[in-house]
Design a protein that fits this description.
This protein is of the alpha+beta class. Helix content is 57%, strand content 14%. The chain is built from four helices and six strands.
Length: 225
């Protein structure tokens, strides 16, 4: 299932091209609207000039001459721009809708991938739980403490391998130089063997997942001799 979803995942170039198309359509729509408004103002001004030129120079006081009606323009200069603007707006709306659908689909696919990965990890961890239940079952209780300890060690090794395979790594900085990004200092204590600023004791190990710190290690830092 993860392979199918990965095949559907668009590349970075496709994402960038899609976003560029959305921005371009929006810019075209704004440009078309500005040109349409400019052409409409220009047409209105020309119509007023023509009406003023057609008015008789001398009007009769008793019977004023009626203004001549302007002949209808053979072609509306703003019609083409308005049509282009409407087309650009429609294309912009469709691109925005497609982008929203793409965003929703991508988020859903990512969630499904996470759930699938979690399902596989939990399936392996359930095997560890089964082994613990069998070890504590009354019919499997060992009278020999050494045998019981050996069984617990086997279950621990199984559990540790599952976590390691999942990418989890322990942080055990014993003797290393103190790093505030990976360690949490609980206290300082003098040491004859560990240099100042280095870890004397690890109170609690830390963990990281593929170079990302999940939990810092709690340590005691040497203050020197």
């Amino acid at each position: 299932m993860a392979e199918d979803l990965n095949q559907q995942e668009p590349t970075a170039e496709e994402k960038a091209k899609f976003e560029a198309d959305v921005l371009k359509a929006a810019e075209e729509a704004m440009k078309m609207e500005a040109e349409a408004n400019k052409a409409a103002d220009q047409a209105a001004g020309e119509a007023q000039d023509e009406a003023a030129a057609d008015k008789p120079a001398e009007a009769s006081a008793e019977q004023p001459a009626e203004p001549a009606e302007a002949a209808p323009s053979a072609e509306d200069p703003t019609a083409a721009l308005k049509a282009a603007l409407a087309d650009a707006n429609d294309r912009n709306l469709r691109l925005m809708a497609e982008f929203d659908n793409y965003r929703r689909r991508t988020a859903k696919e990512q969630l499904e991938l996470i759930e699938t990965a979690n399902g596989k990890l939990l399936e392996k961890l359930s095997e560890v739980q089964d082994n613990f239940e069998r070890a504590f079952a009354s019919e499997n209780k060992a009278q020999d403490l050494e045998a019981f300890e050996k069984g617990m060690q086997m279950i621990y090794n199984q559990f540790a391998k599952i976590l390691t395979d999942a990418g989890l790594e322990q942080i055990d900085p014993t003797g290393a130089e103190f790093d505030p990004n990976m360690h949490e200092a609980l206290m300082q204590q003098p040491s004859e063997t560990v240099p100042e600023g280095h870890v004397v004791t690890v109170f609690q190990k830390g963990y990281k997942l593929k170079n990302k710190i999940l939990k810092t290690a709690k340590v005691i830092v040497s203050s020197g001799k």
